[in-house]
Write a structure and sequence with these properties.
This protein is mostly helical and about 30 residues long. About 95% of the residues lie in helices and about 0% in strands. The protein is built from one helix and no strands. The radius of gyration is 13 Å and the shape is rod-shaped. The mean pLDDT is about 90. Keywords: Membrane, Transmembrane, Transmembrane helix.
């Protein structure tokens, strides 16, 4: 279970980072 939880935890963290990066890039291009 710990491995599964860690996997989803990092998956969410990476997802949030990608979204934040996309917002920053989109905002900078405008």
């Amino acid at each position: 279970m710990q491995v599964i939880n860690s996997f989803w935890f990092w998956l969410v963290i990476i997802g949030l980072l990608l979204i934040l990066t996309a917002i920053l890039i989109g905002g900078g291009m405008k």
